[in-house]
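Researcher: Here's the sequence for the chain we discussed earlier.
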Amino acid sequence: MQLREVKKGKWTIYEVCNPNGTSPLLAWCNELNPKYRGSLKGLFAILSLVATTQAGPTLLPKEKSHEANKKEKIFEFIAGDLRLFWFYAEHQRKVIICGCQHIKKTKKANKLEIDRIIKIKNGYAESYKAGNLTYFDDEGKIS
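Model: Thanks. This is the structure I predict for it:
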């Protein structure tokens, strides 16, 4: 599995990236309708805040981040209608892995995206145990 750094500070936030280190999150951001620019700015402000504070995601109010699937311990960052699903890296302290982003269109969390992030989380755990993680920096270079 390939992980690309999104933000680094007291916490490190990675996203699951493409094998060549390119960012699905940045590609999604570039494709978004301009009406979401404010929400996008808010989403990256949340990521910056989480990465740079000792408390990380625990300091965020429920309106900005909460558990989307309690059984699997899947969370989501929230900025307007934009959602970014994530989980804690179980074997590393102060590391968050993001895997799916979408525009929320209904009251409930998107079931397909939840299923997708659960598969990503399981794949991450398997890759970690097997020593098969490749890390890229925020510019897409192997670190």
